[in-house]
Fold this protein.
Amino acid sequence: MPITFGEVVNVLKLRIGAAIALSAVAGVAISPAPMPQGWRIVALVLAVLLSSSAAGAFNQYFERDLDARMKRTRGRPFVSGRLTAGPIWLAIMAAMLVAGTALALFLGKAVALHVFMGAFIYGVVYTVWLKRRTPWNIVVGGLAGSFAVLAGAAVVEPYPSPAAMALAMTLFLWTPPHFWTLALARREEYAAAGVPMLPVILDPKPAARVILAHTIVLVAVSLLPAAFGLGIAYQACTAVGGAIFIVLCWQLAVQPTSQNARMAFFGSLIQLQLVILGVLLEAL
């Protein structure tokens, strides 16, 4: 039976890829220089999607033993047997990464470097080197999203503006609490899989307090682009999204239940979406 579209979306992690590509577009939009030609933005999106999909597929390929131990992931194609792990898939993933990086190279060397580094951080540094070894795994892994913003900024100008750097830092700080809330909601699964996420090595209460403290810093940093010229649309979107995320993390710190962790996880998605929306509204 042929692989379904839903399984393609799953194995390539296209939902995450779309968010990363949108972050790259935000990197273009937040830069003070004039907007580039439309084809350059389209090429950037395709390059980021190709490279992030390659990294996402490799993540599922490499982690199929971990995924088999977790209810959330045991239906993934490499675990269920719908896809058979083998060198052909590694070759396909490598070709996607090369194609994405090559396409980015048409936009500039800095763009290609950032696109490649985003995939490398997630696919190799996070997935292979850190995830099974240290609770710092997702902290370092947060750099992957930052490189998408920097890739977008590099399409416009060779060096990122202060606003673009602040947005890249926001993406870097956003990733840990986003994944930590998910890990707290599914603490037993991550523990059974042997993944040393923060909520696994700490009890729920102190882990939730770390998440809250980290989120407060994240929201403060997300407001920095306002000091570099972003106006009321960005400020309003960021303030609302940040307030939602902080309140939900506060509730989690008071009552570190799985339900509150799931609510905080969805709050992280709302916060990121509103930050990106604010950037795009300012560019209109």
The chain has a mean pLDDT of 95. The chain has two domains: 1-159, 161-284. Residues 173 and 218 are 5 Å apart (CA to CA). The radius of gyration is 19 Å.
